[in-house]
Amino acid sequence: MNEPIKFTGPADVLAFIPHTLGQTPTESFVALTVQGKKLGATLRVDAPFGQDPVGYAQTIVSYLTADEAATGSLLVIYTDEKTTDGDRPYSGHVEALRTELETAGMPLHDAWLVTSELWRNYHCTDPICCPDQSLDAITTSNGNATLIYRGSVVTGFTAPAPFTGDETAREAIAAHKPDGWPEDLEESRAAWAKVLDDPKSLTTETAHQLAGALQHPTIRDYMMADIFPHAPEQFTSVMLGVFLARPDWTRVDTAQEVAFELMKTTPEGQRAPMLCLIGWLEWLKGKSSFAARYFKLALDDVAGYRLAELLVELVNRGLLADCTRDPKKAYDRQLSR
Which residues partner with 78 through β-bridges? Predict the structure, then answer.
């Protein structure tokens, strides 16, 4: 296991956020819990356009309290919003959040403002003590260099590859859609397990078989659950990220990669199951923004697709996967500062 990364300044913390979220936030509040000298959970929420400061703050803190080991917190406001009185943007919301965090026993240690052009300490207004900083200071920080050296890449949202097959694929996938008999279920699960264990074994014929299997709701659900060996038997628990042990996140990444490969041979109108699978795995990783975009693509592919509608509700209600609340199970790195 890699040794914890030592963060020595704000630029390191700001560099960490895009790596853990998969993208550089815009018009967002990002809150991080602190566990002694270690970073804990990371939470991104949309900036509070017109929202009540106290209610907004209480919602954020209600999520952060899931980190029972938290002893403090940090806050980063990503925005290009301007104020007419020269005050910091969203000052009322930040003050309300500071109060709620103090009450919750995780006082706010520091906060920074990041715009599309610069970053600065949020609370310090003395330009001599706390001058504006270039965004280059973040990308050239030791923290960012170390994260990249360890293999982390801020890839951002990955759009599905265009369909590269021909129209015979539609009929082939439809022909592979199972009737739901037990033998169909076992055959589909076995083919899925083989590809997850050896992605290079995926052929066009196997891709059509798996794409067809995913068209059947029950078999699709079993295949999604099979990504997590030793997962709870109740599918609802699996969907909500309730796992007894840390998931094999490498296997999760493989499942996403296979789903992307399946879409290369799957025409429009049959892609919704794969888009839901990818988005759901993003949600389990704590990347709700990416998840929501995949669910929208699923609904664009098949209007009224029920699984996509249900998953959209998870995101819209601000629900977090259970596994993201436990640092021992979450996808996020555990880094020290």
Answer: 28, 114
